[in-house]
Design goal:
alpha+beta; four-stranded antiparallel sheet; 19% strand; Immunoglobulin-like; 282 residues
């Protein structure tokens, strides 16, 4: 293997010197200048040493056959001819090969970018599908689309909160106006549906701001917009959180009651950082 590798290197050097000499002879047949010859030979040797890269780009097995010990009788001569030809046209060969490599690098980078974008689109689609599934599940579970009796907890376990004077947003200001109180937090994640800016998926969560000191337990009653058939769903606390997934056309104020009525929370979805127009103003 080492002998074959040494032979390849000697062939490239010899072809580079010979090609550089031929190159200068073709350009200056009437005179010989040592400095120009040295530069021409240097370029020729450099071009000859690029032949392995050229063979890799054109998917040729010539070099691998030689190094692996299974060459045809004429393979060394063919390889030497490649090196000699590259050395003779060293300037054009180096420039062309450089452009080819840079072009393939750009194409590979663009392909990687497109692949990444495709993966991101698939991941977004999968996440959107999961979100739709969670919304459908919670809609059926808590009767958001039709009236059902609450079996998880009785509404009598929670105080009655009177609605406000604003018919389009009846819970605004009715729960104290704060999303965090008594070590509890009401938060939301809002994501618009693709190609439907007026329609968003919303994940409402009530949790403890310090689970070690005051873990959230029992149930949470959410107060939603009255357009929902069951606008006061009662959600159990599971692993310290009460979560409700809904779909909404336009923003509104959400209220939440927990700690058996001792804690009231309020969140105006129109002021949420995830809220975008036109959904925010509907």
């Amino acid at each position: 293997m080492r002998c074959r590798m040494l032979s390849i290197i000697l062939i490239m050097i010899a072809a580079g010197v010979a090609g550089g000499t031929i190159n200068i002879s073709l350009r200056r047949p009437d005179r010989f200048i040592w400095r120009e010859w040295m530069w021409s030979v240097t370029a020729g040797v450099g071009a000859a040493f690029l032949i392995p890269l050229f063979l890799r780009i054109v998917a040729s097995s010539l070099l691998s056959d030689i190094l692996n010990g299974s060459p045809k009788p004429e393979d060394l001569f063919v390889f030497a001819a490649f090196c000699l030809l590259a050395a003779i046209s060293s300037k054009a060969f180096i420039q062309t090969l450089s452009d080819r490599v840079l072009k393939e690098a750009r194409e590979a980078r663009q392909q990687a970018k497109e692949t990444k974008e495709m993966v991101n689109e698939v991941e977004e689609s999968a996440e959107q599908a999961k979100s739709v599934a969670r919304i459908a599940q919670d809609t059926a579970r808590y009767g958001l689309g039709h009236r059902v009796s609450q079996k998880l907890a009785s509404s009598s376990d929670f105080p009655i909160i009177p609605s406000g004077s604003e018919p389009d947003d009846p819970w605004a200001g009715q729960f104290g106006g704060k999303s965090e109180a008594n070590g509890r937090l009401l938060k939301a994640r809002i994501e618009p549906f693709p190609d439907e800016p007026d329609y968003c998926s919303i994940k409402l969560t009530v949790c403890s701001t310090d689970p070690d000191k005051s873990p959230l337990e029992g149930h949470v009653q959410f107060h939603l917009h009255p357009t929902y058939k069951n606008d006061k769903p009662i959600v159990p606390v599971i692993r310290g959180k009460a979560e409700l997934n809904i779909a909404a056309w336009g923003a509104f104020t959400v209220g939440a009651i927990t700690d058996k009525g001792d804690t009231l929370l309020e969140l105006d979805l129109s002021e949420h950082p995830d809220a975008q127009e036109p959904w925010r103003s509907l």
